[in-house]
Specification:
Length: about 775
């Protein structure tokens, strides 16, 4: 492919992506709500409903080739030889690449670069990439990948994280990724009542509904452009550039439409082979992963083993918490260190605990790699400490909600890490709201109402076998990065002729940032027409789309840039009027003076002007946890309380979630409809973790890597969600005072559902997802 052809292909793709940004701007011209606090429709609504949203799987370029990746069928094996001859000689095959063809760094990783681009001496997990093929047809590419002959020497896989400590090293860095000991208070302290528990949390997959896909286009300067649904484009660019042996400015990542993400999308295992093949062939190369490849390739929630001992006094007040937390990081480190830090720091939950001693480990195994999934670390410990609170309540004969009320955190209290809770922490108010909310009516026994029973129509053996349970969960998450992460985002707001454009590399993964950015500019500048520029790495970095950080950091950058433009607009008027800009306000599309003597429409004031400003937002710094697990590691915290009502068939073990009452600490409601949708989505994901979602493995091999074997909640499984209270107590250090919305209901829901099943059955329920056998019979059966 000539340089001119490559440039043409690049232009074609760019035009396609740019065109997709227009529908959001067109929608804003209609008579719709506007500004902060309004239910502004999602920016991409029109594009998605009209079928013009730019999913990576739909992209095309002239001279396109198709890629396929050969993946290991084994969890642990030594590679003796790789023979690509048969694949390379197949008609239509343009290139075959292995580890020997990687020109730069042969390993990668967003946090620790320990993951090979292609395995070459040893395979460490099922599905690890071995080689990649580019061909003129997708079927040819897949057949060629299957024709690559790899000779393996099978090795015994290490699949039990407890055995990882004594097993031979699976990686040059060893098997231990991180160990965090947390010591807080007096180790000799004891309580009047002591309860113990052992809990296991399964491997939840992010299961992105949209296909994972990408397109790589070579550039005339010898570089490459990657079109993917990246959630962190600048990190992906730097990682790819290192592996390609190129300077970062010769690699450009263009973010195509992200079809929702509850974790890191477009794992580098998809992106890197694409770029290598494009550079090798000089042609655009596209890869659309199958569902099986998606399950094999991307990271999952950390399976976790938790041992707890809670001490309380006779009144039910916590005295000491002891815990051991062992997380399975899988074959490579990825974000395991950060996940463990959250698990250890929040091991006691949103409760006041005078003495805490927690040991946390995350280790390598030959299981699928674990990484960032919404609420990582916090979800696992929430299920365990709430199980302990239920045990304490039973041992003391105290109502579960009342026991929790006696121990909840408040602003000014200390976390076991020694950090003072300076943000709003209305935990008691949240718990009280769900406790006092009216309970749903009991189901009738009439045949026409059998669909209300667990298992759906004909699912319950007998209505008389159904028991109803009510349980509680109280959870917390941190916002933004932790332990010294430098959180910063940059945004530019440009206004030309009364139409505004926001340029920010913050990726909207479904959390609604594009909509929020429009609301901010509408609020500050009074303009109706606001568009988001497509995201690529030619823009300044905005960081990853995780922990609600774009609402805080990127939203803060957009607000500051918009206020700078506002000053540029108002200063000449204020000068003519002999007053400061603070005495002019923009409201309802008009600029007026404090005394009402001056009034002008924003459209008239903007006519013929081109104004722009760039600004950054950087929250206050944090610090790593020290050798005793102490330190101010988190910028902010968010809290949630959920009351779950479930019906359990104690003969079949089937569980129906009747209702989830949610009260959440949101700081400030920026978009009511969007906030409600985020909470409902988080709750539904939590129901999946509680009841159905578990990516099962046998000897490290993933069983049924498809949406038949992996049971996601459907619309029929989604419970009734009652948002009973949203506490708007603004965090003064956060832009707009808002808090992250979607992670904390994911964290809290599984604990609440498990608590309700315990109440219905009297059984311990110490494993997620809840197996039918855990809900069958009585405690003595």
């Amino acid at each position: 492919m000539s340089g001119q052809d490559a440039a043409t292909a690049t232009t074609t793709v760019n035009t396609t992506v740019t065109a997709m940004a227009a529908p959001g701007a067109e929608a804003s011209e209609q008579q719709v709500p506007r500004g902060i606090g309004a239910s502004v429709p999602a920016a991409d609504t029109r594009a998605k409903t009209e079928g013009t949203f730019p999913y990576a799987a739909d992209l095309w370029a002239e001279g396109l080739l198709w890629a396929a990746v050969l993946r290991s069928p084994h969890a642990h094996a030594r590679i003796l030889s790789i023979d690509t001859t048969a694949a390379a000689e197949m008609p239509g095959v343009r290139a075959v690449v292995t580890h020997a063809d990687v020109p730069g760094a042969t390993t990668h990783g967003r946090r620790i670069a320990d993951r090979p681009v292609f395995a070459h001496d040893v395979v460490r997990h099922h599905g690890e990439p071995i080689a990649a093929v580019a061909a003129d047809h997708p079927d040819t590419a897949r057949l060629a990948a299957a024709a690559i002959a790899v000779e393996y020497e099978l090795l015994d896989p290490v699949t039990d994280p407890e055995q990882s400590f004594g097993a031979p090293a699976l990686h040059p860095d060893g098997n231990l990724i991180r160990h965090i000991p947390l010591r807080y208070g007096d180790p000799e302290a004891t309580g009047d009542v002591v309860v113990e528990g052992l809990y296991r949390i399964g491997r939840q997959d992010p299961a992105p509904i949209g296909a994972e896909a990408g397109l790589a286009v070579p550039r005339p300067d010898g570089g490459v452009e990657l079109y993917t649904a990246s959630t962190d484009p600048h990190t992906d660019r730097d990682l790819a550039a290192a592996c390609f042996g190129l300077d970062p400015d010769r690699v450009r990542v263009v973010v195509t439409g992200v079809p929702g993400a509850t974790a890191d999308r477009e794992d580098a295992a998809f992106q890197l082979p694409l770029g290598l093949l494009a550079l090798r062939t000089g042609c655009p190369v596209k890869l659309v992963a199958t569902r099986e490849e998606s399950f094999l390739g991307h990271t999952h929630r950390h399976p976790t083993l938790l041992r707890y001992r809670h001490h309380a006094d006779a009144e039910g007040r916590l005295v000491k918490v002891e815990a051991q937390i062992l997380m399975d990081g899988g074959a490579y480190a990825d974000s395991s260190s950060e996940s463990l830090a959250a698990a250890v720091a929040f091991a006691c939950g949103p409760y006041v605990v005078p003495h805490a001693f927690v040991e946390g480990w995350v280790v390598r195994t030959n299981n699928p790699p674990s990484g960032h999934v919404r609420g990582e670390g916090a979800m696992q410990v929430c299920a365990a400490y709430e199980g302990q609170m239920d045990k304490l309540a039973a041992a003391l004969g105290i109502d579960g909600a009342e026991l929790r009320m006696r121990n909840v955190l408040a602003t000014g209290d200390l976390l076991p890490t020694g950090q003072t809770v300076t943000c709003p922490a209305p935990v008691a108010e949240l718990l009280r709201a769900v406790r006092d909310f009216e309970l749903p009516a009991l189901p009738k026994d009439a045949p026409e109402d059998e669909w209300l029973l667990p298992g759906g129509p004909e699912g319950a053996g007998e209505p008389g076998a159904v028991r109803r349970g009510v349980g509680y969960g109280v959870g917390m998450v941190h916002m933004l990065g932790a332990e010294g992460t430098d959180e910063v985002s940059t945004a530019t707001v440009k206004v030309v002729g009364g139409a505004a454009t926001v340029i920010c590399a913050a990726v909207d993964t479904g959390q609604g940032f594009a909509t929020l950015a429009r609301q901010i500019v509408q609020e500050v500048l009074g303009v109706d027409e606001v568009a988001m520029a497509p995201v690529d790495t030619d823009q300044p970095p905005a960081g990853p789309a995780a922990h609600g950080r774009h609402t805080w950091v990127s939203g803060g950058a957009v607000e500051r840039a918009a206020k700078m433009v506002r000053t540029q607009l108002l200063q000449p008027m204020a000068h003519k009027l002999g007053m400061s800009t603070e005495l002019l306000q923009i409201q309802d599309g008009r600029i007026t003076s404090y005394d009402g003597a001056f009034s002008m429409s924003v459209a008239e004031a903007m006519a013929g002007k081109e104004l722009w400003a760039t600004a950054q937002c950087r929250p206050h710094p944090t610090e790593p946890l020290d050798a005793d697990g102490q330190g101010d590691a988190f910028v902010g915290l968010a809290f949630c309380a959920i009351r779950a009502v479930v019906d359990v068939d104690i003969e079949l073990g089937s569980v129906r979630v009747v209702e989830l009452a949610v009260a959440q600490d949101v700081g400030r409601i920026l978009n009511p409809r969007q906030l409600e949708a985020r909470i409902e989505a988080g709750v539904t994901q939590g129901v999946g973790a509680a009841l159905t979602e578990n990516l099962r493995t046998v000897s490290g091999l993933i069983r049924h890597p498809d949406l038949t074997g992996y049971a996601l909640p459907t619309a029929l499984d989604a419970p009734v969600v009652r948002i009973v209270k949203l506490v708007e107590e603004r965090d003064v250090v956060a832009p707009f005072g808002a808090k992250a919305a979607s992670a904390v209901p994911v964290v809290t829901t599984p604990a609440a559902v498990a608590s309700a099943v315990r109440a219905a059955t009297g059984r311990p329920v110490n494993r997620l997802p809840i197996r039918p056998s855990a809900a069958v019979g009585t405690p003595n059966s």
